[in-house]
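PROTEIN DESIGN WORKSHEET
SECTION A - STRUCTURE
LENGTH: 90
TOKENS:
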């Protein structure tokens, strides 16, 4: 069995939508198959947590950032630079 999954968002509206099972005029276009997160929340398999935008460690993989912020997040998620050397075939 897989353990509890903690998903962090910097969009509180997204969290509110996922936790609230009430349909609204602006959300009725979302197909029911995409509501699996709501089911996972009600069965306590997933926890949604608000995270400040400045603390979103995945941002370097989704958008361009200033060098200082980029380097901070890369270090936070444990990414490192790989240097690849060409291999001679002769």
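SECTION B - SEQUENCE
RESIDUE ASSIGNMENT:
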């Amino acid at each position: 069995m897989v353990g509890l999954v903690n998903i962090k968002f910097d969009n509180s509206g997204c969290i509110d939508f996922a936790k609230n099972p009430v349909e609204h005029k602006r959300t009725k276009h979302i197909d029911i198959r995409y509501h699996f997160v709501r089911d996972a929340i009600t069965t306590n398999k997933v926890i949604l947590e608000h995270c400040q935008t400045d603390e979103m460690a995945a941002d370097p993989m989704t958008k361009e950032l200033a060098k200082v912020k980029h380097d901070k997040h890369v270090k936070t998620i444990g990414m490192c630079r790989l240097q690849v050397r060409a291999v001679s075939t002769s």
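SECTION C - NOTES
The chain has a mean pLDDT of 78.
Strands lie at 5-9, 46-50.
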